[in-house]
TrEMBL record:
Belongs to the UPF0173 family. One of its GO terms (molecular function) is hydrolase activity. Residues 7-191 form the Metallo-beta-lactamase domain. PANTHER family: UPF0173 METAL-DEPENDENT HYDROLASE MJ1163 (PTHR43546:SF3), UPF0173 METAL-DEPENDENT HYDROLASE MJ1163-RELATED (PTHR43546). This is UPF0173 metal-dependent hydrolase OJ996_02520.
Length: 227
């Protein structure tokens, strides 16, 4: 699999079969991602963890341009249905569905969620993606939660994508513990540096993960890495 980071919590994963999954597109409104050409980003599926602007600002334009299928909770899918986007699959925490590329399960996230126009955004969640015999975990915005231990009991993860910026979500120390609980030995850190309250001390973050025996990867915006 290949992962490309687009800043904040936005990234894509190209699966072994070539399917492209795009998560939480927030690019054009992110000054740190000003060099990313959003028109060049392709996706077969767009997955949204919750309704906050900094996770879905570009979702509508990407969905319309690419024809990708939206995967999100029921409330978010319904909201986009009202905008004329019908190629979508509603999924809620605890539920799973088999798509052509593999299985996606919604998992618990402790956060808040409201859509940009003030509409109720449903419950936030993360995802477990299973494809081609491999699986990975995307936490979405969340606090550390004991539910992460269940993930470790049920799945053998290749990697996890965890929020690490603190203030609004887990910080690095909690995220490193989350990695241990889920069994992830490699973590891609997201949700940091975009706003002043989530500026990341990268040296301290790496130290927190090293202390737990976990590799923390912080790809540059626009960088593609193998995972």
């Amino acid at each position: 699999m290949k992962l490309t980071y687009y800043g904040h919590s936005c990234f894509s994963v190209e699966l072994a079969d070539g399917t492209k999954l795009l998560f939480d597109p927030f690019i054009t409104a992110n000054e740190l991602a000003k060099d990313i050409d959003i028109e060049a980003i392709q996706g077969d599926y767009v997955l949204l963890t919750h309704g906050h602007f900094d996770h879905m600002a570009d979702a509508e334009s990407v969905l319309q341009r690419t024809g990708a299928k939206l995967i999100a909770n029921f409330e978010i899918v319904s909201w986009y249905n009202g905008k004329g986007i019908s190629n979508a699959h509603p999924l809620n925490a605890g539920g799973a569905f088999h798509f052509p590329f593999g299985r996606v399960k919604g998992v618990n996230a402790i956060h808040s969620s409201v859509l940009p126009d003030g509409t109720y955004g449903g419950g936030p969640m993360g995802f477990i993606v299973e494809s081609g015999g491999a699986s990975f975990y995307v936490s979405g915005d969340t606090a550390l939660t004991m539910d992460m231990k269940i993930i470790g009991e049920q799945h053998q993860l290749e990697f996890a994508v965890l929020c690490i910026g603190d203030n609004f979500t887990m910080g690095a120390e909690d995220a490193a513990l989350a990695a241990n609980w889920t069994g992830a030995r490699t973590v891609i850190g997201v949700h940091y540096d975009t706003f002043p309250p989530i500026k990341l001390d990268k040296t301290a973050a790496h130290a927190a993960f090293t202390a737990k025996g976990v590799e923390l990867l912080l790809p540059r915006i626009g960088e593609t890495i193998g995972v």
